[in-house]
Specification:
The chain is an alpha+beta fold. It folds into two domains: about 35 residues; about 90 residues. The chain is about 40% helix and about 25% strand. It has five helices and six strands. It has a three-stranded antiparallel β-sheet, with no helix packed on it. The radius of gyration is 18 Å and the shape is globular. The chain starts with 9 loop residues before the first strand and ends with a helix. The structure holds zinc ion (ZN). Zinc ion (ZN) binds next to loops.
């Protein structure tokens, strides 16, 4: 990866695996100007998982869509976006076991979201249940 400031070559000075998010963070430093920045590597779930709706239609899995649906139910919290991000990673981690031939039922995503919200914030869970 090249430097975000000057385009020169960079080297990795630190890296960390975020188990829950199945993501790797790397701290990079430019060998020319010395700028430091972070890069992230995460699994492309959208390319690997197809979500099957009750009607049978298939759509690529979207972490953003999951994040937004969780966020809607967490809006009463000051840290709603952060919380939704953490919960989205938790839900994705649990969903891995529910994937068959690259396909996952939309109701499995809804039920995993419901369980995660219920443990985290009861009123968010009630809100979510009303919309799904
Ligand atoms: Zn640079």
């Amino acid at each position: 990866m090249v430097c975000v400031q000057c385009g020169s070559q960079t080297r990795v000075v630190n890296s960390r695996w975020q188990k829950r998010a199945n993501q790797v963070w790397r701290r990079r430093q430019c060998q020319d100007c010395g700028a430091v920045f972070t890069s992230e590597e995460s699994a492309a779930y959208g390319a690997s998982w197809a979500v099957k709706s009750p009607s049978g239609a298939l759509k690529p899995f979207s972490r953003d869509k999951l994040l937004l649906s969780l966020h809607r139910s967490l809006q009463h919290r000051k840290t709603a976006l952060e919380d939704a991000g953490g919960l989205a990673d938790t839900v994705i981690g649990r969903l891995s076991g529910a994937v068959t031939d690259g396909t996952i039922e939309s109701r499995a995503i809804i039920s995993a979201s419901q369980v995660a919200l219920n443990r985290f914030d009861k009123s968010a869970s009630v809100h979510y249940a009303a919309f799904h």
